[in-house]
Every structure is written in C-alpha cells, then in structure tokens.
Specification:
The complex is a heterodimer of chains A (250) and B (468). By secondary structure, chain A is an alpha/beta fold. Helix content of chain A is 36%, strand content 29%. In chain A, a hairpin with a 2-residue loop joins strand 4 and strand 5. The chains are: A alpha/beta (250), B alpha/beta (468). The complex binds adenosine-5'-triphosphate and magnesium ion.
C-alpha cells in the first residue's frame, strides 16, 4: 500500500539543526495531524519534503508512493503527487490564478493531450463556488493583495484542482473566519479518499473537529514526541504543552 | 527536416549559416574608397555620393558616446568590419528567382509563410541588399511604394529626397553618421493620402557573413490621413567575432496619418546593435514605436518622436530582455514642439543573471507651448541578485501649462516565488517565464496578434535557456 514514509530525517537551516532524526509514516486514506509549539519545526518538515532549496537534508529518507523525494526537484515532487498548502502563501504579481492553475495542470499532462479550456473553466468555477471564492478572482494575480483568509482558500482551490495524492496543510485554518473554516474543511473532507493521504498541521483543536484525524502527533524540537488519536488534540487544547515538556524532562 | 510553426521564431533558430559567394564585396575596413565603391555599385547620383563622403568625415570626427553610455563600445574594431556584401543590387520579385542559399535561409526563418499568412508585403534583406521584395498588387494600384533604399532613391527621388536625412541628421550621433556613409538596404515606403493599409508590411534583416556590418536605411512617409503598420524582424548566426548592426530609421507622419512601427529583434549574443530611430509627427498624426529587444551583446536604441504639429501623438512601448552577457540600453525620446501634443512611454525591462538593462529617456516640453502631456512609465524586473538596472528619465518641462507623469518601479522575482510555483508542478524555467510574461503582459496585449505570439514564445525560450 502507498504511504508517505519519512525515516530518520535530519534537516538543517544554515548549519543549524531544525529536524532531527524525525520519522513518520502516513498510509494513504488516513489523515494525520501534527501539533506543536511555535518553532518546533512543523513548517520545516513540510518545506523540506517539498525540496525547498534552503533546507539542507543531511540524513534520512523520505518516500512518497515509491518516489525517493530526497533526490527530486520541487516541481518533480509536485508532479509526483505531493501538494503543500503553505502557511504563508507567496504573492506572485502579474500571474493570474486562472493562468497559473492552468499551467500547473498542463505541466502534468502528456504532451500529446489537448488541454480542454471549457472543461477546465467549468471545473474551476465549480470548485470556486464550493469554496466561496468569487469568480472574479480568476483574473487576479496569485495571492497578490489577498487577505489572509483569501490566500488560504486559494491554496485549497489549487489543491482541489490539481488532484494530488498527498496533501500537507500547514496551518490552513489560521486566518480563516468561522464560516470559511467550515467551508474549507468541507472542501478538504470531500477530497478524503482511500487513495489520498493528508498531513494537517494546526495549533487548534477546532479544525480537527471538522477534519477529524486518524492520528495526532505532537512535535517538539524537531521530533515527534507523542502520538495518539484525536483525543490527544483535546488534551493539548485544555492543558497546553507544559505537561509534555515535564514528562520529557522526567 | 523538422517542421516548425511559421511564427515560432526561437533564440537558436537564427543560429545557422550557409557559405555564400558574394558578387560584390567592399573588402575589409572603412575608407573613402569603400564609400565610393558602395555608391558606385549602386550607380548613385553625385549628390548622394557627396552626402556619403561628408558623412564619413562626420563619423571620423565624432566621439564614441562612452562618456554617458558604455565602454563596451570601445571593443568595436571598425577596421576589421566588412561594410558591403551582396549578390546584386536589385531584389527578386518572386521567391523562385532568389538564389538557393539565400532562399533556404529565409525559408528556414519562415518568411515566405508569414507573407502568405498575414502580410501585405515583404522585403527580405540578406547582408547588404534585399534579396526579395514584393507587395500585393492592389497596393501598387493605390500608389503605395514599398521598395529598397537603392530603388527608392533612384526611382522616386522627388518623394524621398525631400525627407531623406531630415528627421535624423547625419551628425545626430557617431552611428547615424556611419550609417549615412555606408548605408545599404532598408525600406523606402510611401503611402498616399487617405490610403489605409489593412495588413502590415514587413522587412526581415538577416546577417549571414562574419565580421560584417549591416547598415540599412529606412524611410517611411505616410501622407495625410494614411495608415500603415510596418514590422521588422532580425537574426544573425552566432559568431566568435562581433557583428555590427547600425540602422537609421526615419518616419514621417503627415497631417492625420498613423504609423505603427514594430520591431522584434532576436540578435545573437555577438551583435552590437546601435540603431537610431526617429519620427516626425505632423498635425493630428500618430506615431507608435513598438520595440522588443531580445538578444545582442549591446543594444543602444531610443526611438523618438518629434511632435511638431498640433495635437500630434507619440508613443513608445518597449520591452527589453537582458540575459547573461547582454546589455540592453534602451529608451525613448519625446520632443514636444507644438501645442496640445501628447506622448506616452511604457518601458519594461527584464534583467536575468548578469544581464544589464538601462532605461534612458528624454522628454522635452518648452515653456512657450500649451497643454502638452507626457506619461512615462518604466518598470524593471530583476531575476537573480546579480542583475542590474538603471533608469535615467531626463524630463525637461518648462511652463505651467503641461501635464507630466512619471512612474518607475523595480521588482524582483524571488527564490520564494519560484519555489512556490515549482511546488505546483511548474519547472523553474516555466515559472520564470510566467513571471516575465505576467510582467510584460499588459504591453504585449497592445501588439499585433501575430507578434505577441512570437514574442511570448521567444520569452519562454530565453527563460528556459537561462536555467542552468
Ligand atoms: N531561514 C531560516 N533561517 C534561520 N532559522 C530558520 C529559518 N527558517 C526557520 N528557521 C528556524 O527553524 C525553526 C523551526 O521553524 P518552523 O517554521 O519549522 O516552525 P513551526 O513549527 O512551523 O512554527 P509555527 O508554529 O510558528 O509555524 C525556528 O526556530 C525558526 O526560527
Ligand atoms: Mg509553521
């Protein structure tokens, strides 16, 4: 069965170790959540898996569906099926959402196949309607001047259009208003299936009430220090992280 | 042979070279004898030969503009250049009559196909002279003239002598003087009053020989109420040694006329491209320069409009792409010389790697004029931290009555943007192309369709090539 499989991963930024000996396995069909204090390395994990050039992977392996991610370029990893919804989506002035998603889809198509613009727009508008994004946004530059919540919805729109095998959602809930949280969660839930996996990074139990995870992990100083079911999230919500810190120290 | 789409011209497409025998060769280096030789093979009148010889003196006296431009100009060795190479002075009227090697060059560049598809006429210049020149018959019947400079001066002196060298005097700069001394080829166009050309006329300038200088001379006159779009394209093979291209282009728009001049240059990286382009716009006329500079080692080009009639309008839309080892020094000159004249300049430059872009503008509005307007917008996009860009707008406005707007911006394509786009599956080159296309898109929309497609494709190829 296909999985995202990370083993003994060590990631450095400018010679500073951020992830160290990190391991995690997520079978397709499951949703795992990672929680953890600020700076514990959650975004580092997601960007390292996506092969961001600033993240230096010094040890370990990362495999997606048999692909060895460590030796691949960011765009190859994307086309192999890994989608990252960014914690801080990047603004790209001059490149419209419609053109960008279209280019991303075309990058996945066999060269001989014809791109069907009519079908494309039909699907795009459908997904936009589902996510409560105004259709006028197709002509706007990617994330350029978007509000925090608009950026997050636009990430999920791209995810829905690109049909990835594995999705990492890095704090997609932060910045979303209450209604948007519900809409976006519904969008994610509709994509849950036996042949797609999710890693949801969040600080709040609230999101996990909507997107109910199969497992919850706690990340601490670049490592997973505790794993449990969805009740672990409620426990963290009420008790904070101190008790874990104390247990680790003991 | 690989079949290519006729309007796909790519950066490597021009990089081929057939060995060619030349009937006429002025030898190496520049002298009075060379000038006399050129004038002689063209069987010119004595006034024209005198004009050339005087221009040679002016050229020798003038300094290179290294004090404000670039020292790279000093690397041009005028003594090793060949100033005139041709197989004959008269162009063929059918492609069948064009010599085989020359014909295959233009076929490879897709010119005959373009002619069939969307052009009203074509002139194809090979080194010093046009090898082919033809215009649709109905335009001849309407009195339109579209010939090479040699033919124009010989057969229609009454029209051309009046304007020849009047918009750009020989002494304008060192390279306009050089062109005036050794010019050959280029187009002479006259559009009679009220005649509006629906399809463009096109000239294609091909440099084939090594150590060669191409000095075409173009003069376009749109008589009262006439309208014309002219396009030029150019390529050269990549040689180790440098090649010089130094044209002079003069446009005259008489009362109410409209001229649109489109350039898509795709020079190889060894070409010094030092071109003087200027228009004279009479009352209520419109001149628009659309200028796309891709390739070359150094391009210095500042298309200008002298707005000398009331309500005349001048516009320069320019795009420059400077890749590693290239310097695009481009801009626009707007000289307001009558009331209620307006000018608009939009210049976008993209610098990649160690490429360098410079915008040099000039806007003049004297105090005695009323209600003149200028809008200047220069935007630079940098891809890579090594890229360099400078802006010298030079706006001189006197008097209270004018309106001038100037905006400049510099933006960067960051590594984070590229990573973000790659995370969605685009290759690095595609991601860069998208940013560049996004940056120039609102300008490209102003271009004639056929050329916007070609330009977009050129940009894609340039970006692809710049990824290591
Ligand atoms: N470019 C960088 N240079 C230096 N340090 C960095 C850089 N990027 C991240 N770090 C450091 O790496 C550590 C982990 O950061 P990361 O963004 O992965 O944390 P996080 O768990 O996602 O936190 P948050 O919950 O606040 O999003 C932090 O201490 C951060 O300061
Ligand atoms: Mg984070």
């Amino acid at each position: 069965m296909s999985t995202l499989k990370v083993q003994n991963l060590s990631v450095y930024i400018e010679d500073k170790p951020i992830l160290n000996d990190f391991s995690l396995e997520i079978p397709y069909g499951e949703v795992h959540a990672i929680m953890g204090p600020n700076g514990s390395g959650k975004s580092t994990l997601s960007k390292a898996l996506a092969a961001h050039p600033n993240y230096d992977i010094r040890n370990g392996t990362a495999e997606l569906d048999g692909h060895n991610l460590i030796d691949m370029e960011p765009d190859e990893i994307s086309r192999a099926g890994l989608f990252l919804a960014f914690q801080y989506p990047i603004e790209v002035p001059g490149v419209t959402i419609a053109n960008f998603i279209r280019a991303a889809i075309q990058a996945r198509m066999e060269e001989s196949k014809l791109f069907k613009a009519v079908d494309y727009y039909k699907k795009l508008y459908q997904k936009m309607d589902d996510l409560g994004i105004d259709r006028n946004f197709t002509a706007r530059s990617l994330n350029d001047g978007f509000s925090g919540g608009e950026k997050k919805r636009c990430e999920i729109l791209q995810m829905a259009m690109l049909d990835p095998k594995f999705c990492i959602l890095d704090e997609t809930d932060s910045g979303l208003d209450i209604d948007a949280l519900r809409v976006v969660s519904a969008g994610v839930n509709s994509m849950r299936s036996s042949n797609r996996g999710f890693l949801v990074i969040t600080h709040y139990q609230r999101l996990l009430d909507y997107i109910v995870p199969d497992k919850v992990h706690v990340m601490w100083e670049g490592k997973i220090v505790r794993s449990g079911d969805k009740d672990l999230a409620s426990e963290l919500e009420s008790k904070g992280y101190d008790w874990i810190k104390e247990e680790l120290a003991a | 042979m690989i079949k290519t789409n006729p309007i796909e011209v790519d950066r490597e497409k021009g990089n081929f070279h057939y060995n060619t025998d030349y009937e006429f060769d002025a030898g190496i280096g520049l002298s009075e004898d060379v000038v006399r030789y050129i004038s002689g093979v063209k069987k010119e009148d004595s006034w024209l030969q005198d004009f050339r010889l005087k221009a040679l003196q002016t050229f020798e006296k003038k300094r290179l503009p290294t004090h404000w431009a670039t020292n790279d100009l000093e690397n041009i060795d005028f003594d090793v250049i060949r100033y005139y190479l041709s197989k004959g002075q008269m162009p063929s009227r059918t492609w069948e009559e064009v010599p085989d090697d020359v014909k295959s060059t233009f076929e490879r560049l897709g010119i005959p196909e373009q002619e069939r598809k969307f052009l009203a006429g074509v002139e194809a210049q090979f080194d010093s002279e046009a090898a082919y020149s033809r215009m649709k018959d109905d335009l001849t019947e309407k009195g339109v003239i579209f010939v090479g400079s040699t033919e124009g001066l010989k057969d229609h002196p009454e029209i051309f002598k009046k304007w020849f060298g009047k918009v750009i005097p020989t002494s304008d700069n060192k390279f306009s003087a050089l062109n005036s001394a050794v010019f050959s080829g280029g187009s002479f166009i006259y559009v009679p009053p009220g005649v509006k050309l629906e399809q463009p006329l096109q000239a294609y300038f091909r440099i084939n020989a090594e150590n060669f200088g191409q000095f075409e001379r173009t003069l376009i006159i749109a008589d009262e109420g006439a309208e014309i779009t002219y396009m030029e394209g150019c390529t050269a093979p990549k040689f180790e040694t440098s090649t010089l291209h130094s044209a002079v282009v003069e446009l005259v728009a008489l009362r109410g006329a409209k001229i649109q001049y489109v350039t898509v240059q795709n020079w190889s990286n060894n070409v010094f491209n030092l071109v003087t382009k200027r228009a004279m716009a009479h009352e209520e006329s419109e001149v628009r320069w659309i200028d796309c500079n891709i390739g070359s080692r150094l391009t210095m080009k500042y298309p200008g409009v002298i707005l000398r009639g009331r309500k005349a309008r001048g516009e320069v839309l320019s795009i420059a792409l400077a890749n590693d080892g290239q310097h695009q020094d481009t801009g626009a000159k707007m000289v307001h010389a009558a009331d209620e004249t307006t000018s608009n300049v939009i210049a976008k430059s993209v610098s990649i790697g160690e490429g360098r872009s410079t915008y040099r503008g000039l806007v003049q509005m004297p105090g005695h004029l009323k209600h003149c307007k200028n809008n200047t917008e220069c935007d630079a996009l940098l891809i890579n931290s090594d890229s360099q860009t400078d802006t010298y707008p030079a706006i001189t406005v006197q008097g209270e009555d004018h309106s001038v707007q100037h905006e400049a911006s510099v933006s960067k394509v960051s590594a984070e943007q590229i990573f973000y786009m790659q995370q969605r599956g685009l290759s690095e080159g595609d991601a860069m192309s998208m940013c560049v296309n996004g940056f120039v898109n609102d300008l490209i929309r102003e271009f004639p369709m056929e050329y916007s497609v070609e330009l977009k494709r050129l940009i894609d190829l340039e970006m692809e090539g710049s990824v290591g």
